[in-house]
Amino acid sequence: MKKINYSLSIFTVFIITSCESDDTETNSESGNVVADFSFSNEDNLFSFTNLSEGATTYRWDFGDLSFYCDKENPTYRYVNIGGEIEVTLTAINDLGQEAAVTKIITAPEVLDVNIAIDGDFADWDSIEYLYQEPTAASMQKIKVWGKGDNINIYLEGNSTMQMELVNIFISTDGDSSSGFLSWQWPEGSGAELLFEGPLLSSSWGSFYQHTDPNGGWGWSALAGSGANLTSSGIVTVDNDTNAIEFSIPKTQFNSLGSSISFAFTELTIGWAAVGTFPNVTSTSKFVSYEVPKESTGLCE
């Protein structure tokens, strides 16, 4: 139920409205100007609809101390803050009279994690597993964190996971029908990049660019690219569990779409097969990760 309080002065009427709901609204009116708006959202992207009356220009404060917006009906993406956020619209007429309305929106919480590739996996605790196969031969679980300059990957497996040699197939464009089309992951592959070598920093491993337009096995080595992978090396977590973390700079991917996908094959130093991840089945596919959008909506 709404409680409305009125406070009168000679020139201005202020109306403060509050209600017991998720939205708290504060209004002010000046002259013939009335400020009002509605909003909707898809995840952290908000669309604002201007319902103001008597105004010709507008000023939006999206509540994250980023910038003001002068669009009539803007969209805005929250990438720095989440939770309850105060959004204020100021409507202004040709005489300079202003009215303002403030409403509270609820945006998804923003996860802020700094991954250090140092063999201490505590900084991964707040990140959920992207994919798990507890019965896989060696590699069994994966986490990915892609906010910032790098794509960071945490792999966890049993004690047979040593990563003496590994092939990492990477789809960088979010399109499973372009790039290398692997029979091992028939429901979705499309790798533009391949890393081959020991999963160690400064090893002889290298990245390869896919070159076969028909989706077959055709690769061209990218000289000196192995130095662009930083790895902790294998860490023994307990008697049954090994883990490794590594990072690849986003610049290595040339162009990076809205998602990036991975599949792994592990071999011994003698090139004997150890395991695949995900497991090879008639319905297997690459593990896909949505790359965080880090730029704001910029008052679109």
Can you characterise this structure?
- With 300 residues, the chain is mainly beta.
- The chain folds into two domains: 3-107, Immunoglobulins (Immunoglobulin-like, Sandwich), CATH 2.60.40.10; 121-290, Immunoglobulin-like.
- It has strands at 3-8, 13-18, 25-29, 37-42, 45-50, 57-61, 68-69, 75-77, 83-92, 98-107, 131-132, 139-145, 150-157, 165-171, 193-197, 206-210, 219-222, 230-231, 235-238, 241-249, 259-267, 273-277, 287-290.
- It has a seven-stranded antiparallel β-sheet, with no helix packed on it. Strands 14, 15, 16, 17, 21, 22 and 23 form a seven-stranded antiparallel β-sheet that branches. Strands 11, 12, 13, 18, 19 and 20 form a six-stranded antiparallel β-sheet that branches.
- It is elongated and about 80 Å long.
- Residues 1-23 have low confidence and may be disordered.
Distance between the termini: 36 Å
Give the fraction of residues assigned to helices: under 10%
- Mean of residue pLDDT values: 89
Report strand order across the widest sheet. Answer: 1-2-3-10-9-6-7
Structural class: mainly beta
